[in-house]
Specification:
The protein is an alpha+beta fold. It contains 4 helices and 4 strands; from the N terminus they run ααβαβββα. The protein has a 4-stranded mixed sheet. Strand 1, helix 3 and strand 2 form a beta-alpha-beta unit. Helix 1 crosses helix 4. It is rod-shaped, with a radius of gyration of 47 Å.
């Protein structure tokens, strides 16, 4: 074997080895690119899932907020309607006149007078427009006198300094008590609940 043949064999071997290394390098490069593409796809898919979750969460928050706001507006509207109706009822009560007003006032005074037993001096306060009515009714009650007017729809506030008792039997207090006791039913009827 000649030196040239040996050199040629070494070169062939080196070329073959270089081709083998290049082939292995290309395969490894393809694997790395494939892994990188897979990682990129997974990252992209995870980012899309995160974005979808964030969008859904924001949508739920906005929907919940809108529902809460709508509920609050309905409650405010109901409150305004109930207040308006109560105002109408108060106006109707304040407009009661004649025998009906006298009878209601007398009934409320009778109920309050029972609290004062044998008190010597009892003062009865009522609406300024009812002063004459109260004076007429109080002619039947010994020791009772008309006091300063009070701001009310009608009825009486009765008090005695001796017993330090004060009874509020105004139309306002009766209405307030009845209103509070029946507000749920009033609301159910008004809003068909």
């Amino acid at each position: 074997m000649s030196l040239e043949t040996v050199v040629e064999d070494i070169r062939d071997e080196a070329r073959a080895r270089a081709m083998e290394i290049r082939s292995e390098g290309e395969e490894r490069a393809e694997e790395i690119v494939s892994e990188a593409e897979d990682d990129a796809e997974e990252i992209k898919a995870e980012a899309e899932r995160d974005a979808e979750r964030a969008i859904e969460q924001e949508r739920e928050q906005k929907l919940s907020s809108a529902k809460l706001e709508a509920k609050q507006e309905r409650l405010d509207a109901r409150r305004r309607v109930i207040e308006e109706i109560k105002g109408d009822v108060e106006a109707e009560i304040a407009a009661i006149e004649g025998d009906e007003r006298a009878e209601l006032t007398r009934t409320l005074l009778d109920a309050a007078a029972a609290e004062f037993g044998d008190a010597d001096a009892v003062t009865v306060h009522g609406r300024a427009d009812d002063e004459e009515l109260l004076e007429t009714i109080l002619e039947e009650y010994e020791g009772f006198s008309v006091g300063e007017p009070t701001d009310c729809l009608g009825g009486v506030v009765v008090e005695s300094d001796a017993s330090r008792v004060r009874v509020d039997n105004t139309f306002d207090s009766v209405l307030e008590s009845a209103w509070d006791d029946n507000l749920r039913e009033i609301s159910a009827r008004l809003f068909e609940e």
